Amino acid sequence: MRKFKALVLAAAVGIAFSSSVHLPSAAAAQPTSIAIPTNLALDGKVSASGEFAPHQGKDKAFDQDVFSKWLTFSSPAWLQYEFSAAKVVTSYTITSAEDEPYRDPKSWVLKGSNDGSNWTQLDTRQNQSFTSRHQAKTYSFTN
Predict the structure, then answer these.
(1) What is the pTM of this model?
(2) How far apart are CA 79 and CA 72, in angstroms?
(3) How far apart are CA 140 and CA 110, in angstroms?
(4) Which of 33, 62, 99, 114 would be a feasible disulfide site paired with 41, CB 3.0-4.6 Å?
C-alpha cells in the first residue's frame, strides 16, 4: 500500500478520508475480522479552489458533520487535504448537500501526492447520484 502526504479531490462536498482498521473477533467460532473506518483527516491542512466562508468554508469538508458542507462556485472545484505525516488511504466518504441536489458532487478524481507536485490517481467516479439530502456514501479503492 502506498502512503501519501496530501490528497486532492475535485468537486466534493462533505468528505472524510479513511483507512480500515482490522480487529479480530475473539467471540466468533471461526476467526473473523471487522473493518472499522478510521478518520485520518484530523491534524492536517485544508486548501481549496474557493469557499463560501465562513459558514460553508473548506474546513467544513472534514468536520464529520453531515449538516455542514464545503461550497464553492469556482469551476473547476478542487479540495486538498495535507496530512501532517504520510498516510495509507483506502476509502473516503462524500455526503450530499443539505439543500439543493444540483450542488451534490457528480464526477470527481481523487489523487495522492508526497510532494505536492507529482500526483497519483487513486480513484475516479463519474455520474454519481444521491437519493436524499445528507446522504453519506463511502467509496473504497485498492491502494
Answers:
(1) 0.76
(2) 10
(3) 11
(4) 62
Handedness of CA 6, 109, 76, 102 (dihedral sign): negative
CB 131 within 8 A of CB 51: no
Summarize pLDDT for 113-128 with one digit per residue, the tens.
998 899 999 999 999 9
* pLDDT tens per residue, range 90-102: 888 888 888 888 8
Kindly report the three-state secondary structure assignment for every residue of the chain: CCEEEEEEEECCCCEEEEEEEEEECCCCCCCCEEEEEEECCCCCEEEECCCECCCECHHHHHCCCCCCCCCCCCCCCEEEEEEEEEEECCEEEEECCCCCHHHCCCCEEEEEECCCCCEEEEEEECCCCCCCCCCEEEEECCC
